[in-house]
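Aim 2 progress update. The chain analyzed this quarter is reproduced below.
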Amino acid sequence: MQQIPRRSFTQNLLGSLLSFSLVKTLYQADVLPNTFRPTLHLWLRELEHLSSDLKAGNLKQSDWQMKVAELFDKVELPGLLRTINFDRLARKIKLSDEREAVLGIELPQLEGVPTDLTYSTLFEALRKGRAIAPHGHRNMASMHLILRGQAHLRQYDRLADEPNHLVVSQSVDKLCGAGELSSISDEKNNIHWFKGISDVTYIFNASIYRVNPAEGSVGREYLDPNRGQRIKDGVMRVRRLRQNEAFRLYNRA
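Predicted structure tokens:
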């Protein structure tokens, strides 16, 4: 294995936290050049340490979100996409008219990396006008990175739970282009909703489930913010939705 100067490797490591999972995903898809693979297990091992620290309670979820955003500022996305041959991966995913298209990829065993990783990865794609329907999570932290295209992102903080509704406040409402990142946790921006603006928008997702291993986790909790009842400025009561209803309401042609 070619030796990498310690200074260069450290800078690349710190500057590529958000690309660790991306590289993990693309390794299985066989799109990485052979010359890039020798350092892969080093990156994955460090990502596993960071993820384990979060689950062990050594890092607050909101701090994890902040550190992810800070570290990603150092990543040069255009160079990364050229390196990983992004176009080849994009051809593998099958687009959907009902929801986001999702490609889940498992990592083959690498030396120095546990068989069961703390985090999971997804490669997602949205047709224009289609959505990752508005939903929240419990006991999970994740990040979404726009790889190509543009999406309208809206996020909300969960304020209170009711049997058929949630009380939420909107925290984010913006257009996101390639290279922009968002994250969620129980502590901040828990609910998110993406709508594709470009002909196709590609998104990379890395998620840590059951952040607190002593607690269970709940799948997606779909909501209807478009028809929310305003309580006061920035706060509204929104109805819970079943999955098929959420897909129907938020993925109209």
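Helices lie at 6-15, 17-28, 40-55, 61-72, 77-84, 86-90, 243-250. The first helix runs from residue 6 to 15. These observations will guide the mutagenesis experiments scheduled for the next reporting period.
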